[in-house]
Write a structure and sequence with these properties.
With 68 residues, this protein is mostly beta strands. The protein has a domain of 45 residues. It contains one helix and four strands. Strands 3-2-1-4 form a four-stranded antiparallel sheet. The longest helix has 6 residues. The mean pLDDT is 92.
Amino acid sequence: MALSARNVLKGKVKDIKKGPVMAEVTVEVASGVSVVSVITANSTDRLGLDVGKEVEIVIKATSVMLNA
């Protein structure tokens, strides 16, 4: 599958907190650096997500805000 998104990070699933509808998936992209994504619980099943699985994070946004 080809994507137009330029921001793709490779990582490993470190934790999944699955609720009845939504799931919070934590992916470690570097030592001590994690990205958290909230997806549907159904998507975790469809993607076969488990702790330790290698995944790609695709970030597609029209704007990204930073606050310092």
